[in-house]
């Protein structure tokens, strides 16, 4: 029931973010560590993913929201992988906002996967000068900009392996509110806090 309530929160926050003109919204839906949870809970989450992605893709398209996924999707059941691909294709040309769902995602795993792809290219004879920009090209979604703000709910004070490469200069907002209870008012508080900050990126 908590996960079902969490899905309702997703719908509310996606709608609010789109109305506020936010271009990119990333949600950490299932981490690479979540496989350690009880099997009944995992199966329940996967069933929710099936229902949500299949039923909401057209609604997202109508609202000009593109859905994308970050993570090792190959570990999910084949039918869910197909549904994810169909949702991406349905919303491919939407450009008001990009909704990025991190599924079976881990920041360390993303960096390892990027290194493996980079090494594969260099071993095949591709000549490159490795820099932060070239390394970014090997991340899951290299065209997505680094997050300006990361909101951490539920009273936790850690990143939990989320966007490790991308969060170097992100602003953080921590709240004790649980995700199922995170509503538009809480979202506005987080954005209000962010808007008062002076981002220096290492300068004076």
Walk me through this protein's architecture.
- The structure is a single chain.
- The chain is α/β, with parallel strands linked by helices and 204 residues long.
- It has one domain (2-187): Undecaprenyl pyrophosphate synthetase, CATH 3.40.1180.10.
- It has helices at residues 2-19, 39-62, 78-90, 107-123, 132-136, 184-195, and strands at 24-31, 65-70, 97-105, 149-152, 171-174.
- A three-stranded parallel β-sheet has the order 1-3-2, sandwiched between helices. Strands 4-5 form a two-stranded parallel sheet.
- Helix 2 runs parallel beside helix 3 (78-90).
Question: Would you spell out the secondary-structure blueprint of this structure?
Answer:
Blueprint: H1 2-19, E1 24-31, H2 39-62, E2 65-70, H3 78-90, E3 97-105, H4 107-123, H5 132-136, E4 149-152, E5 171-174, H6 184-195
Parallel strand pairs: 1-3, 2-3, 4-5
Helix pairs in contact: 2-3
Q: Cα-atom Rg, whole angstroms?
A: 18 Å
CATH topology, anyone?
Answer: Undecaprenyl pyrophosphate synthetase
Strand content: 15-25%
| CATH uppermost class | Alpha Beta
State the separation between the terminal residues, measured CA to CA: 48 Å
Level-2 CATH architecture:
3-Layer(aba) Sandwich
* Average pLDDT level: 95
Spatially, the strands of the biggest sheet line up as 1-3-2
Largest sheet, strands/sense/barrel: 3 strands, parallel
Based on the model shown, name its key terms:
single chain, 204 residues, alpha/beta, Undecaprenyl pyrophosphate synthetase, three-stranded parallel beta sheet, 44% helix, globular
């Amino acid at each position: 029931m908590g996960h079902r309530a969490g899905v309702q929160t997703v719908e509310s926050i996606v709608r609010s973010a789109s109305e506020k003109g936010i271009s990119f919204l990333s949600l950490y839906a299932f981490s690479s560590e979540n496989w350690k949870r009880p099997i009944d809970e995992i199966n329940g989450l996967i069933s929710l993913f099936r229902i949500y992605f299949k039923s909401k893709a057209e609604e997202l398209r109508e609202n000009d929201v593109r859905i994308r996924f970050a993570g090792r999707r190959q570990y999910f059941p084949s039918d869910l992988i197909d549904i994810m691909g169909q949702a991406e294709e349905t919303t491919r040309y939407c450009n008001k906002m990009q909704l990025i769902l991190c599924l079976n995602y881990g920041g360390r795993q993303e960096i390892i996967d990027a290194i493996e792809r980079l090494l594969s290219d260099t071993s095949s004879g591709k000549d490159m000068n490795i820099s932060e920009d070239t390394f970014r090209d090997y991340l899951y979604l290299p065209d997505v900009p680094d997050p300006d703000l990361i909101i951490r709910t539920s009273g936790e004070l850690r990143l939990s392996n989320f966007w490790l490469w991308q969060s170097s200069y992100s602003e953080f907002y921590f709240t004790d509110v649980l995700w199922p209870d995170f509503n538009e008012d809480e979202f506005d508080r987080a954005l209000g806090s962010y808007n008062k900050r002076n981002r220096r990126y290492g300068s004076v």
